């Protein structure tokens, strides 16, 4: 079992949410990213897994902001909303509008800290505030954050119902089905369908969404929001194909997603680590172990540069499992013990879980 892990949505959120807050706290912008916990996104068995100078300067600046602000994964929203709720606002006086904005901000911080019940309470309070001041954009925005929170908590039915409400509100405002905001929601509903085992609905949703995104990319080839969604959706669709046993197709989609997100953010980012791990899982299922190791080593190097102990630990364990598949037991045990130590040292449950799985597999192999 080489594990899917990595919270791609959370990764993208850290790159976006804090950047928008730093730019203008009163211009409340959502690059909404819904995520699901890594426990849901990973597979347990190998058989079932799965111009130029300015752009570089901007990418470096974005990465620096992310690294200096957060040291651990938080919730990521994926709906690409951009609501300027109330204009600039008055920084000197707290108005009902700024109270609403601040309440929403606090709720998102609670979500990042996994204080979900508190976040839910604050969002209901924010919804009442938005209704009291009759802010249509505010109401829609709160519904969207509620939907993303439900998705984070794996309350998929609730999340889908909320996302459908958000979509209806957007369409009532004049947004078409080809708008990136609508396509974000469509991609998330397709992803949740996959997580719930409705692979037919998921496949239909991803196919519909990707066809429209491909047209948008041709029309807006420099739009980072469109490109980001295109990459995220390809990664999710690849996970669906892994479940269907279409490993070659999945691998190709993961690679396309990786290229897109590198184009948006550069190589040194958590999303690259996540997708490289997914590519390695595809290679393992294709029994291409050399390629799997090469891909994991590339991911490991990035994780180390990012000082991301959580991903580093899981990747070390995954490398151990690849060595185990090749019959290299001593090398596998060394890597899995290293992964376990990394997990213990950093109190990271994912790394510990994966390392223990790897070590148990080694024990089972030696008993045979």
Write the layout of secondary structure elements.
Elements: H1 8-23, H2 38-41, H3 52-69, H4 96-112, H5 116-132, H6 136-152, H7 156-172, H8 180-195, H9 199-219, H10 224-243, H11 247-265, H12 270-285, H13 289-306, H14 309-325, H15 329-345, H16 349-367
Helix pairs in contact: 1-3, 1-12, 4-5, 4-6, 5-6, 6-7, 7-8, 8-9, 8-10, 9-10, 10-11, 11-12, 12-13, 13-14, 14-15, 14-16, 15-16
Pfam family, one: TPR_12
Family: Belongs to the TTC19 family.
Organism: Drosophila hydei (Fruit fly)
Largest sheet: none
Q: Which band does the percent of strand residues land in?
A: under 5%
Unreliable stretches: 5-84, 86-90
CATH architecture of the largest domain, please?
Alpha Horseshoe
At the first level of CATH, the class of the largest domain is Mainly Alpha
The share of residues in helices is: over 70%
**Radius of gyration using CA atoms only:** 21 Å
The CATH homologous superfamily of the largest domain is called Tetratricopeptide repeat domain
Number of domains: 2
Number of strands: 0
Mean pLDDT across the residues is 80
Query: What spatial form do the alpha-carbon principal axes imply?
Result: globular
The ordered string of helix (H) and strand (E) elements is: HHHHHHHHHHHHHHHH
CATH-defined fold name of the largest domain? Serine Threonine Protein Phosphatase 5, Tetratricopeptide repeat
Give the terminus-to-terminus CA distance.
18 Å
Structural class computed from helices and strand pairing: mainly alpha
How many helices in DSSP terms? 16
